[in-house]
Design goal:
By secondary structure, the protein is of the alpha/beta class. Helices cover 51% and strands 14% of the residues. The structure holds hypoxanthine and zinc ion (ZN). Hypoxanthine binds next to α4. Its cofactor is Zn(2+).
Length: 335
């Protein structure tokens, strides 16, 4: 079996995917036209050409601008269905989707419009593709904790449809400690909790996310490698890291994929997973992330299998749901 087919055959979970980051320029333009929204670019080509980022903020500015094309329930549904089609083609059996309600409610879109469209797509993905999924509400960390509390208030009637919360947007200058009370409240409500940390921010932000927010997974976390004590802790506690290799290259966290530390983290015994983050902006969905990383870092098939296993084990699905996928994974060869 060639490498691409092998990667596709691995049953895998995607745990770090911003659904707004799967908005391809073609759909962005179609929606903008349908909704009478003016975008800052003239064409699909000009949009793609603008995707040359120097850091996280330079990406976020475009990502929030593109999200303005999303207005109606059906827009969110179409967006997520397009993602699920791609994920299915890549062998994804389970996906935990981040969504950013504040990006939309700030523009006057109702919280329910966003949630209804995404949830309808999640249900359809189950029947059409057999993909199970969960929705994780992300708080924008450049906004205040009080604004986060206001968003949580809007989410309260819908907690049966929201599985967890996360923390995204501009990392530097917005440490996890800013959201200690909000995350404590979310944990009290029985929500799962994750946070972006150690993408651009220092290892201390990872420690804060663990100790203050008590997160169950760290999104990105690649800067943990700068702190040996933290590395030892992450290995000992088997805290999953949702690493996004192509994102890290596009946002200049590493200069080249060959220099990415994913293999180092994996070989140090950390529970590393591979994910796509914002695939429409970063040049590849999850399968492409596995493939390019495998080639650049010379990952073995046993390591690829381990990465897929980690993704299933790090997901928020119950053991019983997970075990059939793990059996399929176990049956695949490693040579
Ligand atoms: O990679 C990311 N980092 C932080 N916030 C984000 N929001 C979408 N993508 C990202
Ligand atoms: Zn992310």
């Amino acid at each position: 079996m060639d490498l691409e087919s092998y990667i596709r055959a691995l049953p895998k979970a995607e745990l770090h995917l911003h659904i707004e980051g799967s908005l391809e320029p073609e759909m962005m333009f179609a929606l903008a036209q349908r909704n009478g929204v003016t975008l800052p670019w003239d064409s699909v080509e000009a949009t793609r050409a603008a995707y040359a980022f120097s850091d996280l903020q330079s990406f976020l500015d475009l990502y929030y601008a593109g999200a303005a094309a999303l207005i109606h329930e059906r827009d969110f549904h179409e967006l997520a269905m397009a993602y699920f089609a791609r994920a299915h083609a890549d062998g994804v059996v389970h996906a935990e989707l981040f969504f950013d309600p504040q990006t939309h409610t700030e523009r006057g879109i109702a919280f329910e419009t966003v949630l209804d469209g995404l949830e309808r797509a999640c249900q359809e993905a189950q029947t059409r593709y057999g993909i199970s999924s969960r929705l994780i509400l992300c708080f924008l960390r450049h906004l205040s904790e009080d604004e986060g509390f206001a968003t949580l208030e809007q989410a309260l009637p819908h907690l049966g449809r929201i599985h967890g919360v996360g923390l995204d947007s501009s990392e530097k200058g917005h440490p996890p400690s800013k959201f200690t009370r909000l995350f404590a409240r979310c944990r009290d409500l029985g929500l799962h909790v994750v946070a972006h940390a150690g993408e651009e921010g220092p290892p201390a932000y990872i420690v804060e996310a663990l100790d203050l927010l008590q997160v169950e997974r760290i999104d990105h976390g690649v800067r943990a490698a700068e702190d040996p004590a933290l590395m030892a802790r992450l290995a000992r506690e088997q805290v999953p890291l949702t690493v996004c290799p192509l994102s890290n290259i596009k946002l200049c966290v590493f200069d080249r994929l060959e220099q990415h530390n994913l293999r180092q983290l994996l070989e140090a015994g950390l529970k590393v997973t591979i994910n796509s983050d914002d695939p429409a902006y970063f040049g590849g969905y999850v399968g492409q992330n596995y493939l390019e990383t495998a080639i650049a870092l010379g990952l073995s098939r046993a390591q690829l299998k381990q990465l897929a296993r980690n993704s299933l084990e790090a997901s928020f699905v119950p053991e019983a749901l997970r075990s059939p996928w793990l059996s399929v994974l176990d049956s695949l060869p490693t040579d």
